[in-house]
Amino acid sequence: MLIPHPAELTAGTGHFTFDPETRIVATNAAERKLAGLLTEKLSRAAGFSPRLETRAPRRNFLRFTTDDSLPPEAYTLEISEKSIELRAGAYAGLVHGLQTIRQLLPPAIEGNRVQAGVSWQIPSLRIRDEPRFPWRGLMLDVSRHFFGKDYVLATLDRMALFKLNTLHLHLVDDQGWRLEIKGYPRLTEVGAYRVDQEDRHWDARLKNGPADEATYGDFYTQEDIREIVAYARDRGITVVPEIEMPAHVMSALAAYPEFSCHGEPIAVPSGGVWPITDIYCPGKEATFGFLEEVLLEVMELFPSRYLHVGGDEATRTNWEVCEDCQRRMREEGLESTAELQSYFIRRMERFVSAHGRVLIGWDEILEGGLAPGAAVMSWRGTEGGWEASRAGHDVVMTPGDYVYLNQYQGDPDYEPLAFGGYVPLSKVYSFDPLVDSMSTEQQRHVLGGQANLWSEFIADVAGSEYMLYPRLAALAEVLWTPRAAQRWERFSGQLPELFGRLEAMGVNYSRSAYAVTAASELSAEKDRIRVALQSEVAGADIRYALGEEALTAASRPYTTPLELDRTTTVRAAVFADGQPAGDPLTKTFTFHRAVGKPVAYAPVYHAQYPGREDIGLVNILRGSKNFHDGQWQGWLVDDVTLTIDLDEVVTVSSVAVGTMENQGSGIFFPQGVKVAVSTDGVTYQRVGEYARDYARSGEVRLDAFAIEFAPRPVRYLRIAVDNLGHPPQGGSAWMFLDEVIVK
Ligand code: ACM
Ligand code: ZN
């Protein structure tokens, strides 16, 4: 396994074997440090540790050479039966070459116990390698949930394995301040703790008062940070701290309310807050004094060239009514609070650059103009990055649709609760930080890309690992390997080996890439459906079973789409080595009386959510928890009445309306469904109704509102579905329907 794939690789014959007689040739302190990374693993897993020498013996050695004619992250590796020669431009390149050696060794090298009977050999080959981009990052959100020092160290070791070189720590957010600041001890005494509501969905947590007992939380001491930074440096990784401003700082304002506009005490919130109006007051000079002192301590701890100041998602309503903010605007000739925000960030940029560092922030910092030297992290798609690079700023691309790893990597029905969205492994692999429409000059400003792991829905290490692996490996390859050498088939073909290595490392990785998904279409005659089974992984062995049949490795292999003409349950899985390689899929396709029949809408569905248009509610195909999946029809505020003509009088005894709720996205269950039936299309009789009270919820839920009645002859159905209209929390309600099932 080699991930990321090297720029150039030539296979040789034979192999080199590490044994107790192997020597490592290191001639300076950096090379000796590097040797330590390998000898530590060998002594733990192999039970021997190669001696260091300054001169090469005749054979059986690994030699490091620093050669400053090579770029700092580039390396060459020559492996023969006799020796391994690793040559690099600087320490970073040597680390990368060493990680290549690590990946070529058996997965047992990752183990924590001495393993007998392993041959510690690696194949002869030549590699010439260097990265496509200089910024290959991962952001960990340690605010929404805290992740301790040991997990950060373990993550650094895994990042190094994949040649990632930037760890961005999101240390500050509303729900927790995670960094000890000596000059402002309340930032962690108060700001690092919140009321424990971990038993509730993030978006359904209750508002806290400042006097409530706050027990959930933790933070990094400055000693922890020094250890993290040093551990990262030894692995060629830079740690970039993010100190959010002006918004996402309720934890700081809970500790020091004097830096807000209103100065009133607030609590550290336990869960989601939207919109974010409790933000720093740029009208008060003291706010800048505070932030500068905080940043001085931060710069002391983190030697990184870049300092991240956040800058996203500020709602400035308090600034509009704050006397201090209004005075600042008059004095500075600022026309709007948007300009005041730009003033805020420019002022911080002057401070940061005066200390020899480069300010970076989320793409909102572009709004209203940005100091020329500042850099931008583009998260709202790639537009921010495009604009910033055109304006001459360096950019790091982190578009949500490709690299927000807090989103689902498989069907939400089978996955742990996540933020939403859908970013499967192959989507990450398709990421390119360079946007086609960028000029060459713009592309030169793209430093690289980064995966962001927001932790609202990730409360522990196992959950974090599950979201990171293997997607982080895909990200690493697209940021390192030349675009022309990127191949999904090769990458996905290495998953078994990658999983074996992650297993040996004790990582809770996800097998979702091996899940089977079903795509289905109603036939033109509207009497059958075609069901196509797919796996992301090229050439996967999909087996399926129908109805009550058991699903085993001996089940029918899937080759062409299945044709179904009656209610059928399909089970399917990718099989490898006689076992399901991912979660088996179970899906029931329900045929019913209304399939393919004409539906009259009053009013018609919203243009944004037409589903499959006129056939959408009677096409057998159901929607998933992803409301963008093309199966959902939506109505905004409006109620809808559906009239279905069954073509002939038949016996009917139940009607069910498939619907979803996703309150975080403004989608609410209907308030009720009323069903009336008719044989002549003129006189209708009410046969039943279903009512449901509104209840606040943070979950995404699918449900069918079912109405049963005594069997009766029916040709026409009139189904009235009531939208919640305006939810108590404000705004307008979407109502989503996917199928009307008539039996
Ligand atoms: C962000 O996701 N708010 C940067
Ligand atoms: Zn103010």
From TrEMBL:
Start and end residues of each Glycoside hydrolase family 20 catalytic domain: 133-482
Family to which the UniProt record says this protein belongs: Belongs to the glycosyl hydrolase 20 family.
Reactions this protein catalyses: Hydrolysis of terminal non-reducing N-acetyl-D-hexosamine residues in N-acetyl-beta-D-hexosaminides
Name used for this protein in its record: beta-N-acetylhexosaminidase
KW Transmembrane (keyword) present: no
Gene Ontology CC terms: membrane
Protein's UniProt keywords contain Ribosomal protein: no
Domain (Beta-hexosaminidase bacterial type N-terminal) ranges: 2-129
EC number of this enzyme: 3.2.1.52
GO biological process, one term: carbohydrate metabolic process
